[in-house]
Amino acid sequence: MPSALITGGTSGIGRATALVLHDLGHRVAVTGVNPASLARAREELPRGVTVIHADAGDVSAVDEIRGVVAERLGALDLLFLNAGTFQPALLPEVTEASFDRQVAVNLKGPYFTLQGLLPQIADGGSVVLTVGVGARRGSMGASVGAATRGALLAMVPSLALELAPRQITVNSVSPGPIDTPLFSKLGLPDDAREAMRERVPLGRFGSPRDVAETVAFLASDRARYITGQDITVAGGYGLGA
């Protein structure tokens, strides 16, 4: 039975991926830090999905994750580094604390989580990172978030080369406007949301499951010859702009 660990897996895209993989027969563990999301995940996710309290921005948490993985999952077939934070602010308003937190959660955390769990990833396994279309497209107030996610994107080809001898694939997914709790927290006014939706050629915001199905594909044998790539899941958002 294949196994998967999903960081930031108690809500949104991570939660949807946990459900998709569970339905496909994976043993799944998810991490999260928000008490409310952790509680809902423990109550609502299928039995057998392990929920781990771990701060994605705290490198010391990797030791606990490693222990739970060894006990509950054994070797990992998929490591989905999905946890992230976005604290939009214009340049004059960015604080050092906000900058450091976004770097910790979006860049440092995923890097050292991969480093710490690498011995537990099975040969022939898969690593997937969440990046996002904002890493390539400008957005007001998104300079720090885009920079930290963009750094992940820049690392993917090098990581793919490093792990290729073990037949471990490394790819990323870049969601566009996906209707997640994080997206809702941005507090966009209705007219701004509608303007964004109108820029999606497929005519709707994406669902977390749209991204989850892509991650499941990248973790499958059908994607064994795909590595070092980024897949945009955005309904064509921005095409023709």
Report on the architecture of this protein:
There is one protein chain. The protein has a single domain (3-233), classed as Rossmann fold, CATH 3.40.50. The protein has a seven-stranded parallel sheet, with helices on both faces. β5, α5 and β6 (169-175) form a beta-alpha-beta unit. It has helices at 12-23, 35-44, 61-72, 96-117, 143-163, 181-185, 190-198, 208-218; strands at residues 3-7, 27-32, 50-53, 76-81, 121-130, 169-175, 230-233. The protein is 42% helix and 17% strand. The protein contains eight helices and seven strands; from the N terminus they run βαβαβαβαβαβαααβ. The chain has 241 residues and is α/β, with parallel strands linked by helices.
Q: How many angstroms does the end-to-end distance come to?
A: 44 Å
Low-confidence stretches: none
The CATH topology corresponds to Rossmann fold
Structural class: alpha/beta
- Overall tally of structural domains: 1
What CATH architecture do you see?
Answer: 3-Layer(aba) Sandwich
Overall morphology: globular
Order of helices and strands: EHEHEHEHEHEHHHE
Quaternary assembly: single chain
Chain-averaged pLDDT = 93
CATH first level: Alpha Beta
Please describe the biggest sheet, giving its number of strands, its sense, and whether it closes into a barrel: 7 strands, parallel
| Rg from alpha-carbon coordinates | 17 Å
Residues in β-strands, percent: 15-25%
